[in-house]
């Protein structure tokens, strides 16, 4: 099996999420950036190895066909917008995702700056979010985030494509969403009601028993089981973000890695459409999804040796021009004498 990118790390203190769109004619510039990201990460990370700098790059469905020939990930499709009875999960433009994380925001920033310079005008930034660790891995609502993540080999198995798609074994599917939280509404309800929204206690992070947990709680709608009743895992690497004062958005950047996109898709259907229909996630009454995208993070070897570019993405060689006419000019302006 090919080697995946460095997705599973310890929970770092900082992250930058860059969502990029490829400009017309920018395919070759993007390919150049994809090939250089590994070397840039190594170079910047060597300044402070203890900060555990990592960068994961993932590619959207439409961009894949603009960048590469040959096979494509079997389950890679664009993000599907979901319009529920009350809330919507929007689909927003996205070609490339760069997830940078480290214990030092300075390293994240420097790598993002260098990579942006390499991409140059080949891309435009759709979204740039700077995340941070908030106390003991809590989001800004005060609840611990990522409690249900698997660990160790279970985590690796949960995110790694295997023999079902041998051309892309070692890769991972990625879903991202940015949520903006209404803290005035959230802070207006009691801690007990907040716990019912999540389905676990706020202070000590204990999940409620099934006979007590509300059916529309966040946890109740995010547990997906296979035909045998076994829970199917994904790995979330969410980060809180936001401005301190009221002039800017604040909330959670959601990012989930998985072996296949169907688990994340079912979770989102449960949240926005409801399970059963209409029984939507109560948390959405307080936090609004403002972006949504889906990507594939290919194995490291794929990025080291990219497939050929499609013919349309290769800049044509310029046609040779006519031979210059000897007219006594040095071709600096018009120095030819009038007749």
List keywords for this structure.
disordered C terminus, five-stranded antiparallel sheet, 8 helices, globular, Dyp-type peroxidase, single chain, 23% helix, alpha+beta, peroxidase, iron, Alpha-Beta Plaits, 339 residues, four-stranded antiparallel sheet, Dyp_perox_C
Question: Would you mind describing this structure in some detail?
Answer:
It is a single chain. The chain has 339 residues and is an alpha+beta fold. The chain has one domain: Alpha-Beta Plaits. Helices cover 23% and strands 21% of the residues. The protein contains eight helices and eleven strands. Strands 7, 8, 9, 10 and 11 form a five-stranded antiparallel beta sheet that branches. Helix 1 packs antiparallel against helix 3. It is globular and about 55 Å long. The C terminus is likely disordered.
The proportion of strand residues reads 15-25%
Assembly context of the chains: single chain
CATH topology: Alpha-Beta Plaits
Q: Give helix and strand order, one letter per element, not per position.
A: EHEHEEEHEHEHHEEEHEH
Under the CATH scheme, the architecture is 2-Layer Sandwich
Domain Dyp-type peroxidase N-terminal: 6-133
GO molecular function: peroxidase activity
Cofactor: heme b
Protein name: Dyp-type peroxidase
How do the helices and strands line up, and which of them pair or pack?
Blueprint: E1 14-22, H1 27-45, E2 54-59, H2 61-67, E3 82-83, E4 88-89, E5 96-102, H3 105-119, E6 123-132, H4 152-159, E7 172-181, H5 183-187, H6 191-198, E8 235-236, E9 239-242, E10 250-258, H7 262-272, E11 287-297, H8 300-304
Antiparallel strand pairs: 1-5, 1-6, 2-5, 3-4, 7-10, 7-11, 8-10, 9-10
Helix pairs in contact: 1-3
């Amino acid at each position: 099996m090919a080697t995946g990118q460095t997705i599973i790390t310890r929970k770092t203190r900082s992250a930058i999420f860059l969502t990029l769109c490829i400009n017309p004619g920018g395919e070759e510039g993007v390919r150049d950036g994809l090939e250089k990201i590994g070397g840039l990460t190594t170079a910047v990370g060597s300044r402070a190895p203890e900060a555990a700098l990592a960068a994961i790059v993932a590619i959207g469905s439409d961009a894949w066909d603009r960048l590469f020939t040959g096979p494509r990930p079997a389950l890679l499709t664009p993000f599907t917008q979901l319009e529920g009875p009350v809330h919507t999960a929007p689909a927003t433009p996205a070609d490339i995702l760069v997830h940078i994380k480290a214990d030092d925001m300075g390293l994240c920033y420097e790598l993002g700056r260098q990579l942006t310079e390499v991409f140059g005008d080949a891309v435009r930034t759709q979204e740039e979010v700077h995340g941070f660790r908030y106390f003991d891995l809590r989001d800004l609502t005060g609840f611990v985030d990522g409690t249900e993540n698997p660990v160790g080999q279970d985590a690796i198995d949960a995110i790694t494509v295997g023999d079902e798609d041998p051309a892309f074994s070692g890769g991972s599917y990625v879903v991202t969403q940015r949520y903006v939280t209404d803290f005035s509404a959230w802070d207006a309800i009691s801690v007990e009601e907040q716990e019912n929204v999540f389905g676990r206690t706020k202070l000590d992070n204990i999940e409620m028993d099934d006979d007590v947990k509300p059916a529309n709680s966040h946890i109740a709608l995010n547990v997906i089981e296979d035909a045998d009743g076994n829970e199917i895992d994904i790995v979330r690497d969410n980060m809180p973000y936001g401005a301190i004062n009221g002039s800017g958005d604040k909330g959670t950047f959601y990012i989930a890695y998985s072996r296949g996109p169907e688990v994340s898709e079912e979770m989102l259907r449960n949240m926005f459409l409801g399970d059963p229909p209409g029984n939507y996630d109560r948390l959405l009454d307080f936090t609004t999804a403002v972006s949504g995208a889906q990507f594939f993070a290919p194995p490291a070897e794929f990025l080291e040796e990219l497939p050929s570019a499609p013919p349309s993405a290769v800049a044509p060689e310029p046609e040779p021009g006519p031979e210059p006419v000897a007219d006594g000019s040095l071709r600096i302006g018009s120095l030819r004498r009038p007749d």
